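Good morning,

Attaching, inline, the backbone tokens for the sequence recovery test we're adding to the shared suite. The designed sequence is right after.
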């Protein structure tokens, strides 16, 4: 009976350790993942941030309106080709 309890405890410990490492790997991959949310036609604060940075760096001359239109697209492509 005592041996059976030890075996069950070891199995549970191994499962717990496996789950812990699987969870940490999953979290680390999420932290390092970057998704591009803005694209041509997008609108919002993220686009305003993109436009602001591109303007500060000299790639964008349009207004900071939060609309990812042709001027923003051209600036992004210019920035990408330069970098």
């Amino acid at each position: 009976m005592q041996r059976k309890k030890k075996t069950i405890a070891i199995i549970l410990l191994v499962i717990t350790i496996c789950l812990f490492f699987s969870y940490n790997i999953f979290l680390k991959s999420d932290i390092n993942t970057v998704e591009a949310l803005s694209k041509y036609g997008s609108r919002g604060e993220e686009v305003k941030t993109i436009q602001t940075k591109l303007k500060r760096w000299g790639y964008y001359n349009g207004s900071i309106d939060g609309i990812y239109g042709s001027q923003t697209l051209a600036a992004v492509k210019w920035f990408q080709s330069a970098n």
